[in-house]
């Protein structure tokens, strides 16, 4: 019996020995599972874009655009008012809308209160047409808080002076938006001297946070505006607001949206950042992926940047963890890599309200990224505007650079 067992073991050992080279060859020649997303994000520095003791400053995403950059020159907007520690937002009345500019890639800033600006009480007029969207120093500001139909301003000197406010002439006779209240912020892509796509939102009157995102298009230099398309279909009743959009090529647009669940007409705590794509130049849209699962505090608007490498970067605030975060996509938004933490030193007040974020983000001439948002620290407990400079590394060939009108603003200003 022992001899039989030994013979069987010897045969088994010989068989395994013969198979070992084959197994080793198969393992050694398997293609490694390459992740869809590769790259790294690191913080270079945290800077102060605007701070005044005893004052608060907030909401860059409500008051500026991703398109407000010209190389190392960056323009941002925000609201400023007295610092008041209270439930909700630690900013009191009266409030002023301000601008700040950096000419050295976000390292230093100068702020001022512009004249003829949103909230000045100037009555809007019909759009005059003749707007040159291809002007190298063009900027547009979209306003929603004045009345139910919104208005806009334009600048031809990088925000030094503004014209307006103007009405979106012709838009409100469109049945897709006529019954709703305008809630749009500023997100636009200029594709020629006469064409501009503006990504906005509206909501159902009397129904808080019922926004849905859609596209306004003008092809005649702002003489008239028409409804283009709804980004999230009407069958999706969840909130979709504050799009941040880039163009990949002549027909492909990518946008990321602030989302919040609605069920049975009621808001729920579930929030997320959704990514949607149009392959037909904004005529129709489809869901592509979700960037982040969000937080329990009404979410936070994302800032999307298409990097020179072709990779996509999203920066956003996360209120539950009191953090600023970012993710990368190197496959045109189909998937998103690991979550990078940019900072977690937020100073929560006695009411435990994480009032932060509302980012805008810009790529500098040297490839670094400047993320601008509002924040508070133990050293500066008042809400203030911070600018974090990021180094973003994407392996060569992983960014899928596209041809055509491939910048976040369409035309390279």
Provide a descriptive summary of the structure in words.
This protein is mainly beta. The chain is built from 2 helices and 26 strands. The strands form 6 sheets. Strands 2, 3, 4, 5 and 6 form a 5-stranded antiparallel beta sheet that branches. Strands 11, 12, 13, 14 and 15 form a 5-stranded antiparallel beta sheet that branches. Strand 18 and strand 19 form a beta hairpin. It is globular. Mean pLDDT is 88; it is low at 1-36 and 402-409.
SSE arrangement:
Layout: H1 2-28, E1 40-50, E2 55-58, H2 60-63, E3 69-70, E4 73-82, E5 96-102, E6 110-112, E7 125-126, E8 139-143, E9 151-155, E10 163-167, E11 181-182, E12 188-190, E13 196-203, E14 212-218, E15 226-230, E16 239-247, E17 253-263, E18 266-278, E19 286-292, E20 303-306, E21 312-318, E22 323-329, E23 340-343, E24 357-363, E25 369-375, E26 384-393
Parallel strand pairs: 7-10
Antiparallel strand pairs: 1-26, 2-4, 3-4, 4-5, 5-6, 8-9, 9-10, 11-13, 12-13, 13-14, 14-15, 16-17, 17-18, 18-19, 20-21, 21-22, 22-23, 24-25, 25-26
Percent helix among the residues? under 10%
Mean pLDDT: 88
- The Rg value, from CA coordinates, equals 25 Å
Principal-axes shape call = globular
Number of strands: 26
Strand content: 35-45%
Strand count, sense and closure of the main sheet? 5 strands, antiparallel
Poorly predicted tracts of residues = 1-36, 402-409
- Treating each run of at least 4 consecutive H or I residues as one helix, how many helices? 2
- Please give the alpha-carbon distance between the first and last residues: 88 Å
- Secondary structure category: mainly beta
H/E element sequence: HEEHEEEEEEEEEEEEEEEEEEEEEEEE
């Amino acid at each position: 019996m022992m001899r039989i067992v030994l013979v069987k073991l010897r045969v088994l050992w010989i068989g395994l020995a013969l198979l070992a080279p084959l197994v080793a060859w198969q393992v050694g020649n398997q293609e490694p599972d390459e992740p869809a997303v590769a790259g790294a994000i690191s913080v270079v520095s945290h800077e102060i874009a605007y701070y005044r003791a005893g004052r608060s400053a907030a909401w860059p995403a409500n008051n500026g655009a991703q398109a407000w950059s010209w190389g190392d020159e960056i323009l941002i907007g925000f609201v400023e008012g007295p610092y008041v520690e209270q439930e909700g937002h630690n900013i009191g009345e009266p409030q002023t809308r301000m601008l700040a500019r950096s000419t050295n890639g976000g390292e230093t800033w100068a702020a001022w209160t512009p004249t003829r600006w949103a909230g000045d009480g100037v009555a809007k007029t019909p759009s005059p047409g003749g707007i040159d969207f291809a002007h190298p120093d063009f900027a547009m500001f979209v306003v929603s808080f004045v009345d139910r139909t919104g208005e806009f301003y334009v600048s031809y000197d990088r925000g030094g002076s503004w014209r307006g406010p103007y009405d979106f002439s012709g838009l409100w006779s469109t049945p897709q938006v006529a019954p709703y209240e305008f809630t749009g912020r500023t997100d636009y892509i200029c594709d020629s001297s006469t064409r501009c796509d503006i990504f906005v939102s509206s909501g159902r009157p009397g129904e808080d946070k019922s926004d849905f995102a859609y596209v306004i298009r003008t092809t005649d230099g702002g003489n008239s505006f028409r409804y283009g398309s709804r980004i999230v279909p009407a069958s999706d009743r969840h909130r979709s607001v504050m799009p941040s959009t880039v163009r990949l090529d002549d027909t492909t647009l990518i946008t990321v949206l602030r989302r919040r669940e609605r069920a049975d007409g009621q808001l729920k705590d579930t929030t997320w950042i959704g990514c949607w794509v149009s392959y037909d130049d904004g005529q129709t849209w489809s869901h592509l992926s979700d960037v982040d699962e969000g937080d329990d505090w009404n979410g936070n608007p994302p800032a999307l940047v298409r990097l020179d490498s072709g990779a996509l970067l999203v920066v956003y605030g996360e209120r539950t963890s009191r953090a600023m975060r970012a993710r990368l996509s190197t496959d045109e938004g189909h998937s998103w890599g690991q979550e990078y933490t940019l900072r977690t030193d937020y100073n929560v007040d006695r009411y435990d309200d994480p009032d932060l974020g509302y980012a805008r983000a810009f790529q500098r001439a040297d490839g670094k990224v400047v993320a601008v948002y509002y924040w508070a620290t133990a050293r500066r407990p008042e809400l203030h505007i911070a600018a974090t400079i990021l180094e973003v590394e994407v392996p060569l060939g992983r960014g899928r650079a596209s041809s055509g009108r491939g910048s976040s603003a369409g035309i390279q200003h």
